[in-house]
User: What shape does this take?
Amino acid sequence: MKEIYLIVGLGNPDKKYENTRHNTGYMAVDFFAKKHNVDININDFFSYYVKFDFLDKTIILQKPLTYMNNSGIAVSQIKNFFKINIDNILIIHDDLDLNVGEVKIKPKGSSGGHNGLKSIFQYLGTENIKRIKIGIGKPEFDTIDYVLGKFTKDEKVKIDEAISLTSDAIDDYLKHNFDLCMSHFNKKLTK
Assistant: This one.
């Protein structure tokens, strides 16, 4: 039986949140799905998801529909149903502490104040979860308005490039391993 890998893009499901800073995780898994000619269109486990084979692995791409602050509910549902090893879970999310378009790949660590990660850590009982953080920059005004706001034209160019490179990093992770992926991409992704 093939090993199952879960790749989760964090975001909020309503139409009004499309292409907002907080939905960068959604945008990244959508890009990866398109690159691999699959649609994230199965509605179950409080998520949209798709399951497909890639190389010698089974991949599940997930977009939780629980809203950001309750992402852990959806992630734990899929993890438990498909019996996915915690080491095979990768979370992709926005990060306020990185410049716009900067990407960092980490094997574990704290939530850094990200409510989606906090929820996932709570439901899975660990912070030892791989993640790819895509920088959205720090706001000069209210954080909530900022993360739920849309990218400027200049920011969108940087984000699109970061999402494309993130997709390449996911491929590298699945073809090789996470440590190799980090060594290949952390220098390349940090501007």
